[in-house]
Amino acid sequence: MSRPACPLYLGSEEVEKHFPSASLLIPPLETALANFSSGPEGGVVQPLRTVVPVEKYNGFLGVMPAYSAVDDALTTKLVTFYENMKDTSVPSHQATVFLFDPRNGTLKAVIDGTVITAKRTAAVSAIATKFLKPAVADVLCILGAGVQAHSHYEIFTELFSFKEVKIWNRSREKAETFAQSVKGPAQVCSSAQEAVTGADVIITVTMATTPILFGSWVKSGAHINAVGASRPDWRELDDDVMRNSVLYVDSREAALTESGDVILSGAEIFAELGEVVKGTKPALSEKTTVFKSLGMAIEDTVAAKLVFDSWSSSN
Ligand SMILES: NC(=O)c1ccc[n+]([C@@H]2O[C@H](COP(=O)([O-])OP(=O)(O)OC[C@H]3O[C@@H](n4cnc5c(N)ncnc54)[C@H](O)[C@@H]3O)[C@@H](O)[C@H]2O)c1
Ligand SMILES: O=C(O)[C@@H]1CCCCN1
């Protein structure tokens, strides 16, 4: 019996190279979201992720396995995320995706998951926004100025035509650095309220554990992508915005288990994004809408396959 070959390793630079634009991910991600929301016939097997708290250091380890029959792809992402880190040279989120041969279980590749996590999360928010943004969407607001703020800025300015981008961060200095580093306009705001006022699309991408977005600030009909607060006792959005918006989620099961914004507000889930993509639930874009994103393993499966296939065809 021959031993399996050593798995391929693709670091973040290689991943970037084989993944020039996150918008490449939109079609396969839409298919994956629709398949996920189709139950067993969609061919997606994705148990709820396991999250191990590392209390002593305010950290968490997430284990995110998934199989997609349509893509014939099997992966597990391991992701760590740490709150209030003193050492700012280390990213708050670090991830690795393991890609297996689904025919025999051989580990084919170990792929940096940090770039994948940044790009696939932003691409899913872009899908939600395509369906749920108001007919006229001139002003984009981003709360947060970290990794996800960058990946969201990149794909949102590529796919949509906002006239204005307003950005707020807890430390203004980081928002200023963000505005100087992006290729395009970004207006730094002194408060979250100032950034949110008048915005048609709002993205919350912070490590906040208590609300930073309040319903009284939100323009009627706006669309909100709520990307942070992925623990059952963490919040980014207040009860007002949660209860008075139409609520879309990536996964009902995950939202009811992991999302403090959903669990603690008692807001009712209207639909999964995959149901909107399939057309079995409407996109009520004239209403104020929230897409609560927690991140799904199947998104990493699709992204890792795209990177691996691109690498294979060029080697
Ligand atoms: N839904 C998903 O699929 C998904 C995927 C990855 C990350 N996330 C979440 O998105 C959020 C941003 O992730 P990131 O990788 O950009 O993190 P990051 O550490 O790069 O950036 C976090 C930003 O939040 C700000 N911040 C930190 N604590 C805050 C607080 N208490 N109040 C307000 N702002 C605060 C920081 O200044 C920073 O600008 C996190 O909550 C993360 O868990 C979600
Ligand atoms: O889906 C993800 O990759 C992230 C991991 C960290 C917490 C939020 N969701």
TrEMBL record:
SUPFAM superfamilies: NAD(P)-binding Rossmann-fold domains (SSF51735). Keywords: Cytoplasm, NAD, NADP, Oxidoreductase. It is found in: Cytoplasm. InterPro entries: NAD(P)-bd_dom_sf (IPR036291), ODC_Mu_crystall (IPR003462), ODC_N (IPR023401). Its EC number is 1.5.1.1, 1.5.1.25. One of its GO terms (cellular component) is cytosol. The keyword Signal does not apply. One of its GO terms (molecular function) is thiomorpholine-carboxylate dehydrogenase activity. One of its GO terms (biological process) is negative regulation of transcription by RNA polymerase II. Its main location: cytoplasm. It catalyses: (3R)-1,4-thiomorpholine-3-carboxylate + NAD(+) = 3,4-dehydrothiomorpholine-3-carboxylate + NADH + 2 H(+); L-proline + NAD(+) = 1-pyrroline-2-carboxylate + NADH + H(+); Delta(2)-thiazoline-2-carboxylate + NADPH + 2 H(+) = L-thiazolidine-2-carboxylate + NADP(+); (S)-cystathionine ketimine + NADPH + 2 H(+) = (3R,5S)-2,3,5,6,7-pentahydro-1,4-thiazepine-3,5-dicarboxylate + NADP(+). It is an enzyme of class 1 (oxidoreductase). Belongs to the ornithine cyclodeaminase/mu-crystallin family. Homodimer. Binds the thyroid hormone triiodothyronine (T3); T3 binding inhibits enzymatic activity. PANTHER family: KETIMINE REDUCTASE MU-CRYSTALLIN. This is Ketimine reductase mu-crystallin. The gene is CRYM.
